[in-house]
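User: Sequence in, structure out. Go.
Assistant: Echoing your sequence, followed by the C-alpha cells.
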Amino acid sequence: MTVEFPHLDLSADEVLTTTRSVRKRLDLDRPVPLEVVTDALEVALQAPSGSNLQGWHWIVLTDPEPKKIVAEYYRKSYTAYAAAGAAVRQAKPPKDADTAEKVASSATYLAEVMEQVPVLVIGAIHVPGGQLPEGNQAGLWGSLLPAAWSFALALRERGLGSAWTSLHLEYEREVAEALGVPPSVRQGVLLPVAYTKGTDFKLAKRAPLDTVLHVNKW
C-alpha cells in the first residue's frame, strides 16, 4: 500500500526558486518517517543519467551511531574550512558582509548539530574500479547531481528541507569504511534532511542575469 504524504501548494517555479539551503530552520525534534524520504527518492530516480546507466546509490542514515560518525568527520573538515574562510573574509571583506556573516553562522550551526538532524542522505555513484576520471569529471557527476537536486526539490514540496553539503568528502574513505560503502562507489553529496520550521521560503538575492549571460559568444 502506497503511503500518501502531504504536499505544499506550490507551483513548479515556486519549488525551483524557493528551495533553499536550510540549516537553522531544520526541525531537529520532529521525526521524519523513512517512507517520506524514500517517497522523495522515487522522484529523484526520474532524473537523467549518462547512457541511462542509473549508477546512483543513496545511503540513508537514521540511526544515531552512523549519523554521529559522519557528523564527526564533517565537523573536522568544517573546522578547517571555516578558519580558511574567516581568514579570506578578514583579508578581503565581501561586498555583502552581512549576508556572508549570516551564511557563516548558519553553516557553523549545522556543523554543530549535524548528528541531531533526523536523517542524513549521502548521494553516491558507481565508478568502475573506484578511480575517478582525470580531467573534467562533469560526465560522471552529471549522472548523480541532477537526481540529488531533484531529491531536494521533492523534499521541499513535502515540507522538508535540506542543505547541499560536501565537506565530509575530505574524509570520504573513512566514511565509506565506517558505513561499509564499497570502493567502487564514490560519494558526491551529503543532504541533512528534516521538516522545516515553517514553509515560507523566499527567493534569494542573486546577481542580475545579464551579468552572467552570454549569447552566441562570450
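User: And one key feature?
Assistant: The longest strand covers residues 185-195.
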